[in-house]
Structure formats: C-alpha cells, structure tokens
Amino acid sequence: MFGCVNVTTNVNGVPYLRTNSVTVGTTTVDFALGFRRIPAVGYLTVNIADAIPTGTTGTLPVRFTLNGNTRNLTNFGGTNVTAADLAGTGVITIFYDWYNSTLQLISPTS
Questions:
Q1: What is the CA radius of gyration of the chain?
Q2: CA–CA separation, 26 vs 35, rounded Å?
C-alpha cells in the first residue's frame, strides 16, 4: 500500500562487543568477536582491544568473525576496510546484515 517496508533493528539495544584476538595472515587481518547472541540485522559497537601488530601490510583487508561466520568489513560502496584504516585500538560502529552478507563500517576511523 505504501511501498515501504519498515524494518526494526536492535529492538533491545545496540550490542557492544570486544575483540578477543587479532590474527594477521598473508591475505587478511582477522578479528575474532567470539560467540554472542546478537540480532541478525542491526548495528554493532565494536571495541577493538587488540591492535593490529606493527609492521603489518596496510593494504590487507580486515575481516571479523562472529558466531563462526567471517565477513570482510567494507566501506560505503563495498571497498574493503584495510589494516591501515584500523591502526591502533578504539571503538567503531558497524552495520551487520547476516541475510545479505553485509558488514559495513559506519563510523569514521580518522
């Protein structure tokens, strides 16, 4: 009737997750978030507590693993967030859509 579907996300609040570890491989940098009960669609606040080690190639794409599911973290437009974009520690905001394989960085990193 109205041509618009209302999708409610994070009805019970925005999950706040802390990284458990960071692993640098030859092709990616992977952050582990462990097993947590979160909505399939919504925003996440992530505390990157584990800095990417100094000397890591800055062009490596960053991935996050949550509940055994690993996805590349992307910017608007689908380009990969790289190790250089997430140097150090801090808090970021991510939009997560399990159904559409989306893990997109919302907050600026610099």
A1: 14
A2: 25
